Sequence to fold (322 residues):
Amino acid sequence: MIRPGAHEIRMGVLAALGFAAIACLPLFDDGYYLSLAVNIVMYVALCTAWTLFSGPTHYISLATAAFFGIGTYTVGIGIETMPFGALLAIACVLSGFVAALVGLATLRLSGVYFVIFTLGLAELVRQVVTWVQTNFTTGIGLYVFTEFTEKHIFWMLLGLTAVIYLTGWAINRSRLGFAMRIIGNDETVAAHVGIDTARAKVLLFIVSGAFIGIIGAILAPRFAYIEPPSAFNPMISFQVVIMALLGGTRRLWGPLVGVIPFTIVFDAVSAQFPNHTSILMGLAFLAVVYLIPNGITGWIEALVAKLKGGEAAPARKTRWIA
Fold:
């Protein structure tokens, strides 16, 4: 592990102060703005966890809804008999275990094959959960009654987001991060120099999936009543991809730049056109891919390099933190 420099220490202090300031929001508002803030922090956490794997590997994973739903249903099933903290740990382990199985089976695939498989995974898990509840329980949905309010959920998500950032920072400075940078630049070269590319990708996929499962578990009390279509909603996967790509995945904090404006705009637009959200999502995805393929952060970096009179630096595909 490389020791942090003075610049990184200063940035860490500023980030800690920023998190502390944001944590004070529930003390001043408990209505619309707090609800919007919960949505923003939720997607910041989801997109950052997604970027832990998809950022350096460039694999577009649509398995977010599967891990999210596993976490949500873990809380729904056990909330009446187990402490909430224990359920978060179980959601983490279950999501990581499923990620391990999926990673071992599919991470030798690439391109569209991996995308299709991960999209089908969420649907497969949803159908299995629906079948089990239909045949072995009295109903399809589950009630989740707790004493947690929006502010408690907000604080838990904010704390988890900080943990995700710290984990990404630590991975970036570790041997695994070094290996992923080589894999991201050229996987064939990485294999030839002795890096176990399959093992490295599976490890990162497990970390990403485990965090997403915890996020789903934290959000379960907010839904109060959960059922397979909402817990394993594929729109969650697509929104995470769009927001992450909009902000840029070359840096760990890049998705933050995409989440905030997209969440605010999408919330306003979906309120006006509730029956056209799928069309809006599709248009947003096309716009991001064709207009800003490197995300807002990549566009800003290229613009700054151009203004300085030099050519834009080659895309640092796998460096997440400045």
In short: Confidence is low (pLDDT under 50) at residues 315-322. Residues 10-233 form one domain.
